[in-house]
Amino acid sequence: MTDPRVDAYIEQAQPFARPIVRRLRALVHRACPEVRETMKWSFPHFDYKGMFCGVAAFKEHCSFSFWKHSLLARQGLVPADRDGMGSFGRFTSVDDLPSDAELLKVIKAAKALNDSGVQVTRPKPKPKPPLRVPAYVRAALRRRKGAVAGFDALAPSHRREYVEWVADAKTAETRTRRLGKMIAQLVKGQSLNSKYDARASRPS
User: Which of 19, 53, 118, 169 has the most beta carbons within 10 angstroms of its beta carbon?
Assistant: First the structure.
């Protein structure tokens, strides 16, 4: 089952990333027709009898991750050591992807793990420290009527998402642009990734 939010995500991705995500998406559905698409942590995910796999498009690379990566690595199907996020490292073009046959083999193996009900023991994540909103963010919020109220009305996870997104900007220009987008969306009561939910609610 597909999700319109994934279509929207692909449309908003960098041009190099779109064919990568589309190909991986098609292969997941081919190997596991019963899979259900969703959005988790702002990235496309595929569920099948629980957490299954996910794909992410960044500014300069894409990744493809399996929830039970460690078990697949023990079978020699994915690298045990990964270069950054994902089960195969970084993809910067479709030429970086493994062959369709190799990917289908891994996806089917992951499906078999979920069919068997085997679980992966994961350490409990450390609690995040309280959110500290930088002074420049607070100042920007105060300059626009309704922005502070919009920010304070968000769920804590959505407030953190905005602050971390702005703070992660590499240049002052990018930070200013992100602040502008944040303020414009806050006065409308929108979270950072509300565009995906909005597109998903439109009739097809």
Answer: 53
